[in-house]
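Summary of Year 1 activities. Much of the first year was spent building the evaluation harness for sequence design. The harness presents a backbone, in tokenized form, and records the residue chosen at every position. We chose the following record to illustrate the format because it has been used consistently in internal testing since the harness was completed.
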């Protein structure tokens, strides 16, 4: 699951102001916390999603859908609906492109589910490969947890 940077920063600000701030005792520490919240609030609308990750996702999804089309020679109606969804994907901006590609993937999987299993399996395989690779791309940007440092205080 992807969380927008805006939502993540909003959650940080809310946690800092509602849960942390009431327990900060010294005026200096409170001032430092307010400064951190101020930086986060100003940063919120200035951060862009990584273009390389968006491009990798859209390239992978497009390739998966194209390969799925190749596996649907025996189901021209389903192939036509997937082709139409793929052709309707906007070239930009990246968020809109990826949202449309995700919707096309869902529509393709829904349509493929109506096929007999022997015909569905090869059509589903490229999408499954894309989803596996996308999960790895999503996880790759996560930083190691600092739970041990946090628990020591």
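For this record, the design step produced the sequence shown next.
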């Amino acid at each position: 699951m992807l969380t927008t940077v805006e939502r993540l920063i909003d959650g940080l600000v809310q946690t800092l102001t509602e849960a942390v701030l009431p327990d900060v005792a010294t005026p200096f520490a409170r001032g430092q916390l307010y400064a951190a919240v101020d930086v986060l609030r100003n940063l919120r609308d200035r951060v862009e999603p990584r273009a390389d990750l968006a491009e990798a996702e859209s390239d992978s999804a497009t390739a998966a859908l194209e390969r799925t089309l190749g596996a649907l020679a025996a189901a021209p109606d389903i192939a036509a609906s997937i082709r139409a969804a793929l052709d309707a994907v906007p070239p930009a901006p990246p968020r809109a492109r990826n949202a449309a590609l995700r919707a096309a993937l869902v529509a393709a999987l829904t349509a493929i589910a109506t096929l007999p299993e022997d015909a569905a399996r090869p059509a589903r395989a490229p999408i499954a490969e894309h989803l596996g690779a996308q999960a790895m791309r999503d996880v790759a940007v996560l930083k190691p947890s600092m739970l041990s440092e946090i628990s020591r205080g």
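The chain has seven helices and no strands. Quantitative recovery figures across the full test set are reported in Table 2.
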